[in-house]
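writing this on my phone so excuse typos. first protein, seq and then structure
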Amino acid sequence: MTERDNNGRFPKGTSGNRKGRPRTSHRRIETPEDFDEMIIDVMNMPTAVRTPKGEETVPLATATMLRLATGKAENRLAASYALSLTRSALFQSMERARQRRSNGEDL
């Protein structure tokens, strides 16, 4: 690596990061299991909601249910569909785990 000058700067035309910026890797969705896992991960992401107690951080699924229950959901159809997808993904995940256990496979 090239040396810096007294001010901590690199010589002109050089950088301290030789390999460059690391590329972000996106998780590929190749199977229905991957898609279900992504849905569950997204709906478990923390989000802030305002309640009578003040601002609270809750999972996105909980926030969606609260908005539907209180009538504050801007798009009720999308919110109910998101919850339906989450429920389906959870059931599918549980069923796959049950099948693995019955087949003697490790989780």
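second protein below, same order as before
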Amino acid sequence: MAVATRNDETAQHSQQLIEALGKVTQIKRLPQAKTDVYRGDEKDKIKYFLSEISFDALVDSAPVTDPQKLHLLYQHLDGRAKKVVEQLQYMIEDPATAYNEARKILKERFGHTAFLEIDFENKLTKWPTIGNNDAQGLQEFGDFLQQVKIASQYIPKLKIFQYPSKLQSLVEKLPLWFRNKWSSKVQKLQRLEGHNAFPTFNAFMEEVIFHAERMNIPQLKSFQSSNLKDLNFGALSKSYDKKGMGTRTLASRMTGFDETIEIKPEENEQSSINNVKIKEKDDVKGEVYCPYHKAKTHSLNQCKKFSELPFEERKDFLFKNRLCFNCAKSDKHIAKKCDQTPPKCCFCEKKHLTVLHDPTRNESLSACTKICDGSRELRSCARIVLLKVYHRSNLSRETLTYAVLDDQSTDVFVSKR
């Protein structure tokens, strides 16, 4: 019996030895983890977290003694980071304590989550404005929002973006069409849950990711126009609701997908250039520059602030800055010598920049000529609709009357009779 027991123990020890040798062989076959030298510079503070992970992977990839760990740690430190724990390398009598204390000091000095919080917040605050058709930019923004969501589980202060004011500052970085959809979403939520309700950061992130995925569908992306060559902005068609009341529909292709906005005739109609954010074809190099803001995030023809200026101020700005009236990008040439494709106004379809469109100019004659096909017979091209009118102080009293729709008017005129 004693002999059998000894044989069993020997066999067990042999099996353990074989397993240990097998693990050592596997470890040697694995690719060795590599880590960069961490210096602890002011601009590299957030790199500590990556350095810590890579160093742990290095020392865990093979059996390493405490003296070896201490030696490896000092090999991967330099600059300020090395000076913080420099004297601990001489504790050769107790290398385990020296190694653990060195890791603890480095963590306290460079491993504050506040550094990550500041980095995330700075990137969100300084994120450039995303263009109407910038599918890649929208996707990158959605990816970063997803990182913020995950990081907020470990960095509580990142939840500051749950506040409506902070969240809305992120919305303003998105295209006009997204902001319109977002405001509708907020309105629907407040109608259901009250005026204090506001979508969460997660809801905002999901909305961005949804539209980013929509704009990056491979089968559809090749058909989405990257400029406004085919834009049919202001194309009006008449439709009727169940009661027979006239309405206007506005077709837009600003996002690569047709969208329809329905406007009731009794509402005040705006046809000003201020309501449109235009993105025209950039130059061959793909470079954009706004001389008004002196920024490379958008072109002058995309600039919302510039389009809100009166027509005379916009024209004077181009004159004073000697900008080309064909491309509005360079002061080195004039329109006659510009090699860019002649622009086309999205309002009157004439050959001038959209930001140089004069909304006060009377174009009724040319529009009438197009509709009447040059016929000499006197005809009226006015669009007359039947509608109900009521005073805001007495909504129950309605008056049935006719109204003339004028695309060039920004006001509603009603007689007192």
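The longest strand covers residues 394-405. thats all i got for now
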